[in-house]
């Protein structure tokens, strides 16, 4: 069965690329000349973990909980894995490091300057010199031998215990520089015993014996004429793989020298410069080329279970049935772990050559430490008990360990990773916050705030003294959070108000060792998430509102007005991330929370979380699906599929903002990357909402998409679009001769305004039966609409009464608390005007006279007070017994019919009303004013209100003094 070779996929930019496996083989690690390190769950992982560590990376080596990276800073930097936090510097050179290698006792690094430095586990660092060219590739054997190919065309082998050069092979290609080279002459020791060394030379792979340095074999491929660049043994040493400068792959079974057939590359071949076998010996290996592409090879051989295969080999060796390799001496078998030449023996070993050596088997096949005791027990039982039946030789069942899945860590929506030198701290509809940091120059650390609308706010540039890592931006505030590593002063929140005067900046330090992990801001609140799972809510001016606790590990946050979202893990992850979403509303000192499940695609992670311009929660996952939450329906609706905007599998979308009113998404398409570049500044594009309906390319599917979005998504012209789309769908159903579908559509929409239009259209196209069947629906829909309108009015009346009652309670509470004695001035006693006419109303209820009535505001020079809107007058200020106030009765005029009749007139009178809601408010005021005027009686019976009243005999004209008094305070 031939091995399978996958297509190469984008991993890094064009240039040098390296690839390797984790020690356990669960993930692939790749590095590139772009300075990025990517951690893949597999070659087909669409969203690998990416971190930018330097301008260029030339070598990588994984070792347990650490990872070593050789960068363009001429150092080997250690990082904690997988957090990628710095953990010290291992080596320093005068040029960049080109190769890293290690075994259990030594760590070696080779450089472009022709220097090799070796660091023992329990000793001092030493240097190996004498090289006349750059170090191209290295390997360290289990016998503590170091082999290095150099640019001078020589392959040298040192014995690290004595620092002695023991052998040199020539005839390799000479190069002057590591960069741009594709032939590395990579040496490879046999991994299980280290008794063989293979290296590529021209069109063959040379294999030599490490004890006598004699040539054993030269492996060649009859169909390959290109020069080999790298080679590597499989983890057990029974297969040897090699790659060429023209993209070929050759794999041999070492003992028989039999070639393993395989598939030819589907795309244009490029030089393969990276090669690594899977550590679990499952017949897989990973490759990379000089174009930054990564691929894999599978099914080289059948994967065997390590435990069963090991036990079978132990039994065969105990019975003397195992044949020794022709190239292997008996002395080599017992000297696999020789320190010098003395073999290591186990207490259970006998003098017989066929005796089982537990230590040899354990070391040869590199079983995990957790299985060592189990292996000792197995072999001890197999040796102590000599039973013929198979059950007596069987081994106790191994421990079953539940597979764990990685839980998504917290991320800041609209930002890029912290380890980027130039990164986005926040990118949203208000503006951009960029952070600039230089690894070489520690003084270069600044933050730049840029607003999309420069007419409202000016840009801000400030030095990042506190090393802020997270930030939030809104129309009113810039919020930034830093850790406690700076001067050990605690994690700190710093905010800059954009619309205030005086001291615009305020800050707050977190208590104890609490660390800020996320910050979001709206025009009213600032929310801080900490590592203690606290949610600290502040106002934009710096008042602490609430401190809340999250139910699980936090993932992301977003804020809008008085609301904010919190995504968290409700349970440990399995194949999917188990996330929930807290929707919190903060109105005054009243909180309300709604907890809902967060919908994600299978196996996907959350990539972006935010609000639309209408305040609807929106989420975007790594599978490329954007979803919006409909609060009334309590459901998530997919509104965008990223595949339509991706040109390749490595492209990604960076969401900026979601405009629900326009049904558009502003996004940035990242070609071949996960995050957008900071320089040059990317140009966002607008993508229209589109639900993943069936047959959406057809006319019917497209109309259904528009109809569904107009029903559930808050667009500005939703009502108009709904009517137009419904008519088009009705017409399409009639043309398709599906009258039942047309009637079903009318029943589903349930609009009394559309039924006459549908009936008219059906009659016009001679669908009389359909028109007759629609006629009974009209009164039904009208009755339903009246009931809904009455219910809405009752709800609004109840809400208004509740607000009035709360206002009344607040006023009473303030009055009770205010115990300060009031000093009231004595009233001025003035003589009444004997010539003033008293009407009937004043006779029945005499009103107190105003002695300064002639000094009106107009006379003094001030403008007349603004007339209060009837809706703005609180119910507590209205008279309790007002007979002239119109009463709500079932027989009185209705607002909705009046609004529909006067809607066009209102639009003409108020063109600035952007939405129907604002137009309804204006119409409601006019409707109430009209009803109030109609219910108010005339001034006199049978006399129009505008007719002037004649002076009575008792009325006298104003004196000259009174007239002058009116103008005494008038401003010229």
Work out the radius of gyration: 41 Å
Helix-strand category: alpha+beta
- What is the helical fraction, as a range of percent? 10-25%
Low-confidence stretches: 305-356, 358-399, 838-849, 851-891, 939-948
- Beta-strand percentage? 25-35%
Structural shape: elongated
* Overall pLDDT: 77
| Number of H/I helices | 16
**How far is the first residue's CA from the last residue's CA?**
106 Å
Give the biggest beta sheet.
5 strands, antiparallel
- Please report the total strand number as a whole number: 52
Task: Report on this structure.
- It is built from 16 helices and 52 strands.
- With 972 residues, the chain is an alpha+beta fold.
- Strands 1, 2, 27, 28 and 29 form a five-stranded antiparallel β-sheet that branches. Strands 3-4-5-6 form a four-stranded antiparallel β-sheet, with no helix packed on it. It has a four-stranded antiparallel β-sheet with strand order 7-8-9-10, with no helix packed on it.
- Strand 42 and strand 43 form a beta hairpin.
- Helix 6 packs antiparallel against helix 7 and helix 7 runs antiparallel to helix 8.
- It is elongated, with a radius of gyration of 41 Å.
- About 16% of the residues have low confidence.
């Amino acid at each position: 069965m031939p091995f399978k070779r996958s297509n190469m996929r984008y991993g890094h930019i064009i240039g040098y690329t390296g690839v390797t496996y984790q020690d356990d083989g669960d993930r692939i690690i790749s590095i590139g000349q772009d300075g990025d390190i990517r951690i893949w769950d597999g070659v087909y992982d669409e969203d690998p973990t990416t971190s930018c560590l330097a301008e260029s990376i030339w070598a990588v080596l994984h070792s347990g909980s650490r990872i070593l990276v050789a960068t363009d800073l001429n150092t080997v930097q250690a990082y904690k894995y997988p957090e990628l936090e710095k953990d010290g510097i291992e080596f320093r050179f005068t040029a960049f490091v080109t190769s890293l290698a290690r075994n259990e006792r030594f760590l070696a690094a080779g450089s472009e300057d022709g220097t090799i430095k070796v660091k023992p586990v329990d000793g001092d660092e030493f240097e190996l010199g004498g090289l006349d060219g750059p170090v191209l590739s290295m390997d360290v054997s289990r016998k503590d031998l170091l082999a290095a190919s150099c640019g001078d065309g020589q392959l040298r082998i040192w014995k690290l215990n004595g620092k002695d050069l023991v052998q040199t092979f020539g005839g390799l290609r000479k190069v002057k520089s590591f960069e741009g080279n594709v032939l590395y002459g990579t040496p490879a020791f046999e991994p299980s015993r280290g008794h063989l060394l293979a290296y590529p030379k021209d069109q063959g792979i040379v294999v030599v014996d490490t004890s006598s340095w004699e040539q054993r074999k030269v492996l060649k491929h009859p169909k390959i004429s290109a020069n080999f660049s790298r080679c590597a043994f499989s983890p057990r040493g029974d297969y040897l793989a090699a790659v060429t400068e023209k993209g070929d792959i050759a794999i041999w079974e070492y003992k028989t020298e039999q070639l393993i057939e395989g598939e030819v590359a589907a795309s244009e071949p490029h030089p393969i410069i990276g090669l690594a076998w899977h550590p679990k010996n499952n017949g897989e290996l990973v490759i990379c080329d000089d174009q930054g592409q990564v691929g894999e090879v599978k099914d080289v051989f059948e994967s065997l279970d390590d435990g069963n295969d090991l036990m079978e080999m132990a039994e065969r060796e105990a019975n003397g049935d195992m044949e020794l390799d022709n190239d292997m001496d008996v002395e080599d078998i017992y000297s696999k772990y020789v320190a010098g030449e003395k073999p290591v023996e186990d207490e259970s070993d006998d003098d017989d050559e066929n005796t089982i050596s537990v230590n040899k088997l354990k070391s040869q096949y590199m079983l995990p430490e957790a299985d060592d005791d189990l292996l000792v027990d197995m072999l001890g039982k197999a040796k102590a008990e000599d039973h013929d039946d198979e059950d007596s030789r069987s081994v106790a069942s191994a421990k079953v360990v539940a597979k764990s899945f990685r839980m998504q860590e917290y991320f800041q929506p609209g930002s890029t990773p912290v380890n980027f030198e130039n990164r986005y701290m926040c990118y949203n509809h208000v503006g951009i916050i960029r952070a600039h940091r230089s690894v070489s120059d520690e003084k270069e650390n600044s933050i730049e705030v840029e607003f999309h609308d420069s007419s409202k706010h000016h840009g801000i540039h400030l030095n990042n003294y506190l090393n802020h890592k997270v930030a939030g931006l809104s129309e009113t505030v810039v919020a930034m959070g830093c850790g406690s590593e700076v001067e050990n002063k605690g994690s700190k929140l710093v905010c800059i108000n954009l619309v205030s005067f005086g001291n615009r900046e305020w800050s707050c330090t977190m208590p104890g060792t609490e660390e800020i992990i996320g910050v979001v801001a709206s025009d009213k609140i600032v929310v801080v998430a900490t590592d203690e799972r606290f949610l600290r809510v502040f106002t934009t001016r710096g008042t602490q509102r609430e401190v809340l606790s999250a139910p699980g590990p936090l993932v992301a946050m977003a804020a809008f007005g008085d609301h904010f979202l919190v995504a968290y893990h409700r349970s440990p992850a399995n194949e999917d991330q188990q996330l929930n979403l807290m929707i919190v509303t903060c109105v005054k000192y009243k909180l309300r929370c709604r907890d809902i499940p967060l919908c994600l695609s299978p196996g996907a992670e959350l990539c972006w979380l935010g609000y639309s311009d209408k305040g609807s929660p929106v989420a975007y996952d790594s599978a490329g699906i954007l979803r919006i939450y409909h609060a009334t329906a309590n459901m998530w609706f997919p509104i965008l599929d990223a595949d339509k905007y991706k040109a390749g599998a490595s492209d990604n979308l960076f969401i900026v903002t979601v405009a629900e009113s326009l049904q558009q998404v502003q996004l940035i398409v990242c070609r071949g990357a996960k995050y957008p570049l900071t320089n040059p500044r990317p140009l966002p594009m607008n993508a229209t909402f589109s639900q993943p309906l069936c047959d959406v390319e057809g006319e019917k599917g497209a109309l259904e998409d528009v109809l569904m979005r107009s029903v559930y998504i808050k667009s500005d012209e939703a009502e108009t679009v709904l009517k137009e789309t419904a008519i088009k769908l009705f017409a399409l159903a009639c043309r398709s001769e599906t009258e039942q579908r047309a009637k079903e559509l009318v029943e589903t929409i349930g609009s009394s305004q559309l039924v006459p239009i549908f009936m008219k259209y059906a009659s016009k196209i001679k669908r009389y039966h359909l028109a007759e069947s629609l006629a009974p629906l009209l009164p039904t829909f009208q009755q339903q609409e009246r009931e809904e309108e009455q219910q809405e009015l009752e709800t609004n009346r109840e809400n208004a009464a509740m607000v009035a009652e709360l206002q009344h309670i607040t006023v009473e509470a303030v009055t009770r608390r205010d115990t300060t004695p009031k000093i009231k001035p004595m009233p001025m006693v003035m003589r009444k005007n004997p010539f003033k006419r008293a009407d009937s109303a004043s006779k029945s209820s005499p009103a107190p006279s105003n002695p300064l009535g002639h000094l009106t505001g107009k006379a003094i020079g001030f403008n007349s007070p603004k007339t209060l809107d009837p809706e703005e007058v609180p119910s507590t200020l209205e008279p309790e017994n007002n007979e002239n106030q119109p009463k709500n009765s079932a027989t009185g005029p209705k607002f909705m019919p009046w609004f529909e009749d006067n809607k066009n007139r209102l639009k003409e009178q108020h063109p600035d009303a952007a939405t129907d809601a604002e137009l309804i408010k204006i119409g409601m005021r006019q409707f109430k004013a009209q009803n109030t005027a109609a219910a108010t009686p005339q001034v006199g019976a049978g006399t129009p209100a505008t007719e002037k009243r004649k002076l009575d005999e008792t009325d006298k004209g104003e004196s000259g003094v009174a007239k002058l008094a009116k103008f005494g305070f008038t401003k010229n």
